[in-house]
Structure formats: C-alpha cells, structure tokens
Amino acid sequence: MKRVGKPVFFIVLLLIAAISTLSITGFHTWYGDMKTTHIKGADDIRWGIDIRGGVDVTFSPPAGYNATKEEMASAESIIKVRMVSQNITDYEVYTDFDKNRIIVRFPWKEGETEYNPEKAIQELGETAWLTFREGQTPDISDPGNIILEGKNVVSAYVGADTSTGTSEPVVVLEFDTEGKAAFSEATSRLVGGYISIWMDENFISAPYVKQAITSGDGIIQGSFTVATAKDLADKINAGALPFRLETDNYNSISPTLGQGAKEAMVMAGIIAFAVIAVFMILLYRLPGAVAMIGLTGQLALVIASISGFFAAFPSFTLTLPGIAGIILSIGVGVDANIITAERIKEELKTGKTLDGAVNAGCKRAFTAILDGNITVIIVAIILMGAFGPPGSFFAKLLTPFFFMFGPSTAGNIYSFGYTLLMGVLFNFVMSIFASRMMLKSISRYAPFRKPWLYGGEKV
C-alpha cells in the first residue's frame, strides 16, 4: 500500500483549522459603515422562531372573492412549499376555513436588523403567475397576447447560458405537452421578434427569438445571480396561488426562549464535545486525538452548509430538529472512528507491526463504516424527498414511490433530514479520509511509533 507522506498530517490539520475558523467567523470587509459579506459565518445562520422571533401574519382572499375550501387548502399547501423552498423550515401555517383566512408564523431572515414585517411577508403574498407574452412591451391587461402560462411548466431549475460565453445563470423551463406545442408555434412565428416574460405584473425579461425552439425547453434570462435565479425557479415550481393574498393584520413575534437559549445551546454543545474528546483520547489515545480533529472539521463543514458558506447550499433555518440531526451525525462520526481504532488495536494484538496494523485496521473497518453511513444517508434522503418541496431533486427521485400520496411538506422533518445528510456526507470526508490520512502520516514520526499509543501493549 502506498505510504502517506509525513507532511500530510500538518497540511490536513491546517485545512481543518482554516475551514473551522471561517465557518464560525465568516469573512467580511468594511467600507466606512458598509459591510460586505464574502463568506458567511455562524452569525449568518437563520435561527428558528423560538430563538430569534419572527412574523405573525394573517392572509385572506381579496374582498368579494368567495374562496372554496379546496382553494384555501391549495393556498396553504403552496405557502408551505414556498417556505421550505426558501429553506425556511421553522414555520406554522393554520387555515381557518370558516373565516377564509390563513395564519402564518415564520422567523426573521438571517442578518435582519430592521425587523420590518411588511417586507418579510411580501414574498409570501405573491401569486407567482408566470406568463409568456408576444412582443417586447405588450399590454399585460390583454389576455390575447399570452402564449403560455406557468401551469404549462413541468419544472424549473437554474442553468447556465453558454451561448454568450459568460455562463450567466438562467432559469431553464421544461414544458408539458401543451406548453411544448404552444412554445414551438410561437417561436416559429415570432422569429426576429421578442417574447416577454412576466411574473404577476412584473417584467422579467424579453428574449430575442433567433430561431424556432422545438425541443420543449425554454430559458428565462434577466441578469440573474445564482440566488435570484433559484428564487424565481422555486416560485415557479411551487405554483401560483389560486388568488392574490391580502394581508389582514401582522405583527412581530418575540422569541419564546430568547437569545439566551442560543448561548446555552452553544455552551452545552462545547461541553458535550469536550467530554467526547476526553473519552476518545483516554480510551483510544493517539487515534482518539486524531479522530477529534476530524470531528471538528466535520462539525465545521455542517455549520458551513447551514450558514450559506457554500454557494450551492443557501442559508438554512436552524431548528431544534435540525440540531438533533447534527448531533446524530456527530454520533455517526464518533462511531466510525471507534470502529477504526478498535480494528487497529485488534491488529496489534495479532502481532502485526505498527504500519501493518494501521493499514489493515483502516482497511478492514471501512466496510462496516460504509454500510452504516449508507443506511443513514438513505433515511435522510427519504425524509427530504417525502417532506421537502415537490420540485426538489430528492422529491423527483422518489416520485415513483410517493406519487400516490401527494405533497406533504413538513419543514421540521425536512430540516432534520438536511442536517443529518450533510453531517453524514462530511463524515465520509473527515472520518473516513482525512482522519485516516492524518493517522497514517503521524505514525511515521519517531515519537509516535510506540504501539501503546494506538492501543497496543506498553513495552
């Protein structure tokens, strides 16, 4: 087996230290009083209602509109989907069918300082009525120039426009049979002209029609960032509300647990992590110490995936079930390192050399660790697919199994599945790869070549 170089331990240690520091502090620059966030840290995590408070708003149909129970139930379902699509997993939605009103409670955004309820509820009240219309500046009150609507869109997702050579983010649309036919006919007829795209009464873009598009897919351009393109795609996937929501009343919600609860949870987490560290080091010595370095990196990466540190993972609402998912994933990581350390001890007892015991122990523990991690990953994927937004990747993946049940969005369960999935995936990176490379590397230094440091007999 190829030996790991001596410097690998320090290289991996420095990388873990850097990612751990950045995941907590983030990276910000200041220009006068203007703060620019380049990398989000732990302070940018969106906390649940109990810890940070939020907004309580009551919606109702427009005056004179007699909404049916089916329409009210549809509006409630779409609001839930929009919440989870925006990673708002701590929310409460109640529908009063007798009084035709929907009561919604959700937390403040991360970084929110003005606590403006009106601004916070705007994104929920939009009807998200997507239309493609003939011409660059059509009369939007004239229904005759509508080519197709959002109901003809099967799915929407973020893509890259490679035709311009800049790979700018765009929203890619997949149409149903009716939409494909209408879009093909319109682009064939309007070559050399424009088709404008509107969300409700807001203009998005007016792409120039270069040639007929018969593939059944379309794109929405509009100087998007990845975040704004995803936001639009999420609204399209969530669907249009059956009626425009009007705000009856709203108010701010004070946190029931208070900011002190967050500090208490952080302190409890630090104490628990320290106790685990003492246990691992006393029982497994050097492999235990290396394992704790890897677990630190795993925890830092999970925090990064929640805060919005990675562009691919927007800021997530951290709820109590989400914290439970993190704790469970750390437990899975501890278990993985214990299995490896025990296998190394067993190999030393059979009389193998230190290098042979470390290599054989890591290799023979891999199968058991892989089986356990894959099982947890499958559970997390099922939770996210069954209780997440219907347009998400996992929901589509599980459609053949859950198509008969319909959407059942539940933010708290989705939050638990997300943090559990991220934790176990990063456990693969840290516990299975990083920790093993560090252990094989440090075992090559003379002071650390004593078998008793790895659980063997002290000579």
Structure description:
This protein is an alpha+beta fold and 459 residues long. The protein has two domains: 8-28 and 258-454, Multidrug efflux transporter AcrB transmembrane fold (Up-down Bundle); 52-253, Gyrase A, domain 2, CATH 3.30.1360. Helices cover 50% and strands 18% of the residues. It is built from twelve helices and 15 strands. It has a four-stranded antiparallel beta sheet with strand order 5-6-4-14. Helix 9 packs antiparallel against helix 12. It is elongated, with a radius of gyration of 27 Å. It starts with 7 loop residues before the first helix and ends in a 17-residue tail after the last helix. The mean pLDDT is 83.
Compact summary:
By secondary structure, the chain is α+β, with helices and mostly antiparallel strands. It is 50% helix and 18% strand.
Say which CATH homologous superfamily of the largest domain is assigned.
Answer: Multidrug efflux transporter AcrB transmembrane domain
Choose one word for the global shape. elongated
Q: How many domains make up the 3D coordinates? A: 2
The main sheet orders its strands as 5-6-4-14
Tally of DSSP β-strands: 15
**CATH classification, class level of the largest domain:** Mainly Alpha
Poorly predicted parts = none
Task: Report how far apart the termini are.
Answer: 27 Å
Radius of gyration: 27 Å
Structural class: alpha+beta
Instruction: Provide the β-strand percentage band.
Output: 15-25%
